[in-house]
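Exercise 3.2. Students should predict the tertiary structure of the chain below and write it as structure tokens, then compare their answer with the key that follows.

Predict this chain's 3D structure.
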Amino acid sequence: MDRRKFLVLGGAAIASIGGCQWSNPFDQRDRIRIVGLLGAIPSKVINQFESASQTKIEFKAENLPAKLWQELQNYPSIAKDKAPHLMSIGDSWLDQAIAQSLIQPIMPNLLEKIPKWQKLSPLWQQSVTRNNQVWGIPYRWGATAIAYRSDKLKFEITQWADLWRPELKLKLTLPDDAREVIGLVLKKMGQPYQPENLVERPDVLAKLTQELKSLNSQVLTYSSDNYLQSLLADDTLAAVGWTSDMLKAQRTNPNLKVVIPQDGTALWSDIWVMPKGEVAIAAMEWMNFCLTPEIAAQITSLTDAVSVSSELEKVPTSVKADPIKFFSQDILAKSELISPLSPSTLSQYKDLWTKLRSGTL
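Answer key:
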């Protein structure tokens, strides 16, 4: 499912946390209410936090990203005694949440209560910082990747350019997403995933238009939701999507091979944010807890993503050997978090996408 619009987090490790964990009325400990995503946090992590603190967690898990976003938008109408203190959203939602005044920044005095924040890579710190204010705490990440049928294709896919090969003519599924499709074409061209002032670079724009038109002739369907189904049903042989989906599917489909293109790719992250309202100090403890080495190891090992923590010494060697979760530093150096475009470049993206999808490019 499209992580640029919605979040999907898979994994059997949290299958037991469906709906709400209702509180015991006789439990007089302090409590925080958290709305999370099914599959993002192993169930035992909640128990470990409650055992390590004097705080009880009321955890509500949503398995549909649209419901999660709707819940954040409905926050002002939720009764104070039921409103969440903390919610998980994808990085693509962050600027929209800020613009709609749905969340509040984590002020410096509160940030001090999250000491693991200081140990995060500048990449992750900058990803949630706007105008010198921190708007959330990232806790796990993944990437845009290519999945293909290794039992059907006679060659290995290693780079974005392979999607243009004649063997994939009308055998390719791409995301129904302008940022991802235009971004991968730019990467194939040796350009950044999200160039600045695209309209001021007619040579790049002309080449981009040509490459998009050529790639479009390879595509059987554009889908951000069911792209793996068509791949597994033999309708297509390759698909572009997100590692969280692909890792889950790969466990039951050994013929599905997943690769991170050597040209570099787009990165995504999941973030804890505070809806506007009452601040719970225990929420800072929870966000910090999620970044501790022990919990970072569990998130990395038991979910289909990797902790953003820089302290991953406790992650098992077998997990670190996964080339999708832990791809090479060389590829990572060429990869980018997708950030907001300038108005002029955004307008150009919309124009290109409209013409591409209508067949008038």
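Discussion points: The two ends are 26 Å apart (CA to CA). The first strand starts at residue 19 and ends at 20.
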